[in-house]
Structure formats: C-alpha cells, structure tokens
Design goal:
The chain is an alpha+beta fold. It contains eleven helices and 13 strands. Helix 1 packs across helix 11.
C-alpha cells in the first residue's frame, strides 16, 4: 500500500456477476472519473474476472470503493473478502450490508428500533400460503418483492388478489424468500445519508416515475422519472423524513453512506421502504443529486467518502490494537 495520508490510491470495484452488472459498470466508471478529477490515483477492477482477488491485493491501493450493486457486492460478501485481505473500503460492513440487502431482516430491525415501515409478510419457497390468508392479513393491494434483490428487480404491485400468484411466481424467479408488503399510497422520496461518526441527512428528493412505481426502467432509462429537490412536502415533514432516514441508517449500523427510500402518505408519518448501502453513484443518480443540492459536487462527494473511510479504518485499527493490549 501507499501512503494514505498523501494521495490515497483507490481501487474501484465494479461490474461483478449480479443482475445489476451493467449499472455497476456505469457507476464504477463515473466514480473513477470523479476520483481522478479530485486528484486521486485510481485502479479499476471488474470482479467478474477470475483473478479479481489478486488484482485487488496487488493493486497498491490504500482503500476500495465498492461500486457493485445487488448480490455479491451489496450483500456483505465482498465486504467480508476485503476484511480478510485487510483492505479498507468505503461503506458499510459485512453485517450491515447483509441486513440492508435482505428486505425482511431490515423490517425486523426497523420494527425493533421503532422505525416506521409498512406491514409485511414473508413467504419462503416451499411454504404453504394462500391468497385468502394474505389478503385477510394485509389486504389485496400489496407489493410483492424478492427479499434479497435490488433495483426493483422482480417487484410487482398487485391491485387484485387474483394476480397475487403470478406476482409470487415472478418474485420466486429471483429469490427463495419473498416479501409481501402492504401497499402505501403517498409521495415517494429518498434521503441520502453520508458520514461516519456523525452521519448527516442530505436534502429530501422526491421521485415522480413515469410508471406506476420506481421500477428498473424508471431508475435507469433517461426521461422515465422526474426528481424534485427538496421534496414537495411541508418543511416539518421533510425534517421528520430526514430524522427517520438517519434512524434507519443507524439501526442497521450503516457506515459512510446510504440512501433511504421512504413513502409519505398524506397526513401520516413517513415510512421506510428500504435502505441501499451501495446506491447508484453516477452523476445523475439520486444520492449525488441530493448532495449537489447541498452544495457538494460529485468529485468532492467521492473524495470525501474515501477520506471518511480511511479515517474510520484508522480509528478502527487503533481501537482493535487497544483491545488487544487490554487482554
């Protein structure tokens, strides 16, 4: 490794083998450009290649910037690998990443921490379930989603109970566990969170998709969604949304950055839909857009995430050394 106190070399991990590979390649390339504009040396590694572990180990990098969306990147697996080879990285650790990726586990954590989230049921492959039991518990207007998938892949909004079996079949194509969540009508917003010791919430960003909900095409196809910052909500509701987003971030033990998606029903408190520990990081993605509204341009944001990560890892190493000295 080089001298991280000077100009740390950053290895950007992108691509990978998840269903979100193409988006990850775009995120990684734009993060590389931003870091280079900020004056940081960059090494690029596509984790789909068989030799990617050795390429990381011998890259000469001081820190990894993970731009891998979905499985094998956002779910704690790559974080665990980096821990084993002693490579500091930007973002949340193994457990936080795994919990945030699993929508059902996230809900259990939110409920235990008092973070509002829509009511839901879990159905695992092989479980006995029927339409009547689901609709009697949470109604027939529901959202069916794979528990451990990202970018709204495999997600269906069900308006009529008769459509529930088809939605379940679609979700089971992507995961062995499916979350059936009560549909909540309201304004869809997202709140970016950045920082390590004292994370801060970025301005609220309202999402207006062309489709019924913020699906894969709405996220990534040009012109398929409109973003409004700050969200068109009363100031006290925006402040409450930011507070709840911070609570969700902290409940999962997230570090460095996250993007918290919420739904705000009219006249009711905001409710957390999910937390993304590796949100899209292109110049037009939601978190960078919110950061720009706070006066933080994309290169500065990426560089700040690297600086914060290195400071966090130095403190962590010092803490571990002191624990060893006490035994």
């Amino acid at each position: 490794m080089g001298d991280p106190s000077a100009r740390p070399t950053v290895v950007v991990l992108k691509g990978g083998i998840s269903a979100e590979r193409e988006v990850s390649l775009v995120t990684g390339s734009q993060v590389e450009t931003a870091l280079a504009e900020a004056g940081l040396p960059v090494v690029s590694v596509d984790t789909a290649t068989p030799d990617f572990i050795d390429r990381i180990r011998y890259s000469g990098a001081d820190v990894a910037f993970i731009c891998l969306h979905g499985r094998f990147g956002e779910d704690g697996t790559v974080q665990g690998l980096l821990e084993l080879i002693g490579m500091p990285y930007v973002g949340s650790g193994v457990l936080s990443s795994a919990m945030a990726m699993d929508k059902w586990i996230s809900k259990l954590v939110f409920e235990a921490a008092g973070v509002p989230t829509p009511e839901a049921l879990l159905v695992e492959r092989g479980d006995d379930w029927d339409v009547e039991s689901v609709t009697s518990a949470i109604g027939e207007h529901v959202v069916v989603k794979p528990s451990r998938e990202g970018s709204a892949i495999g997600v269906t909004i069900v308006h009529d109970a008769a459509d529930l079996p088809t939605a379940m079949a679609i979700a089971f194509e992507h995961d062995d566990a499916v979350v059936i969540e009560q549909f909540v009508e309201g304004v869809e917003i997202t709140v970016g969170v950045v920082g390590t010791d004292e994370p801060i919430a970025l301005p609220t960003l309202e999402i207006v998709p062309e489709h019924e909900f913020y699906d894969y095409e709405s996220k990534y196809a040009p012109g398929m969604s409109t973003h409004i910052t700050p969200a068109r909500l009363p100031e006290d509701v925006r402040d409450l949304s930011k507070s709840i987003a911070l609570d969700a971030h902290k409940a999962l033990g997230c570090v460095g950055l996250s993007r918290v998606d919420l739904i705000v029903p009219e006249g009711e408190a905001p409710s957390v839909l999910e937390v993304n520990t590796i949100p899209g990081m292109t110049t037009t993605s939601l978190l960078p857009e919110a950061a720009r509204a706070a006066g933080i341009e994309f290169p500065e944001l990426c560089a700040r995430l690297v600086t914060d990560a290195l400071a966090y890892w130095r403190r962590r190493s010092q803490d571990q050394a002191s624990w060893g000295a006490d035994t």
